[in-house]
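C-alpha cells incoming
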C-alpha cells in the first residue's frame, strides 16, 4: 500500500512538472515558426474589377493595395493580408519580367536589433506565402528597416499599428 501511494505521488508530481513546462512555451516567434512552415493557401476568388479576392487594380492591372499589416510582436500573415498577397502574386504571374521588394517594418517598441529581425521575419512570411502561390523566389527581394522608417510618427497604438507592416515595392514606383 505504501509503495502504491509513493508511485502515485511521484506520478502526480511528474505530471504536474510536465504540464508546467508545457505551459511555459517560448516567445511569439517560436509559436509562429511552426505555423509559418505550413502556409495554407485559399483562393479568395476574383473580384468584379479583376483583382483576386476583390482587391482593386490600377490601370496597369497592378493591385492598388501595397501594404500589409501585422499584430504586435507578430509576423503571421492574416486573412486580409493574404488576399493582398494573392492579388500581387496573380499580377506577377501574369507579368513574368517584374520583380518586387518586400520591406519589413516595425513600431518603435523593442530594441533596434530585435525590430530589424522582426521586420525581416515579416517580409519573409510574405515572401514565403508568395512562393507557395507559385511565384519564383528569385523575383522577390526581402529587406528589413525595423523601426527606422515609420509610416506614422505618433507614440500610441494608432501610430504603432500603421508601422507594423510590409510594403510591396515594384521597380520604378
Amino acid at each position: 500500500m505504501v509503495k502504491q501511494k509513493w508511485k502515485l505521488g511521484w506520478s502526480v508530481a511528474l505530471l504536474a512538472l510536465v504540464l508546467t513546462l508545457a505551459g511555459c512555451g517560448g516567445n511569439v516567434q517560436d509559436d509562429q515558426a511552426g505555423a509559418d512552415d505550413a502556409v495554407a493557401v485559399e483562393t479568395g476568388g476574383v473580384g468584379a474589377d479583376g483583382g483576386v479576392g476583390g482587391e482593386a487594380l490600377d490601370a496597369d492591372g497592378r493591385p492598388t493595395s501595397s501594404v500589409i499589416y501585422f499584430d504586435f510582436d507578430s509576423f503571421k500573415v492574416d486573412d486580409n493580408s493574404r488576399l493582398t498577397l494573392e492579388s500581387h502574386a496573380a499580377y506577377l504571374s501574369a507579368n513574368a519580367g517584374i520583380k518586387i521588394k518586400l520591406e519589413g517594418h516595425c513600431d518603435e517598441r523593442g530594441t533596434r536589433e530585435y525590430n530589424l529581425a522582426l521586420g525581416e521575419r515579416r517580409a519573409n512570411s510574405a515572401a514565403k506565402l508568395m512562393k507557395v502561390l507559385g511565384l519564383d523566389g528569385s523575383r522577390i527581394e526581402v529587406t528589413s528597416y525595423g523601426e527606422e522608417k515609420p509610416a506614422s510618427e505618433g507614440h500610441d497604438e494608432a501610430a504603432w499599428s500603421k508601422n507594423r507592416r510590409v510594403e510591396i515595392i515594384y521597380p520604378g514606383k
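note: The chain has one domain: 39-169.
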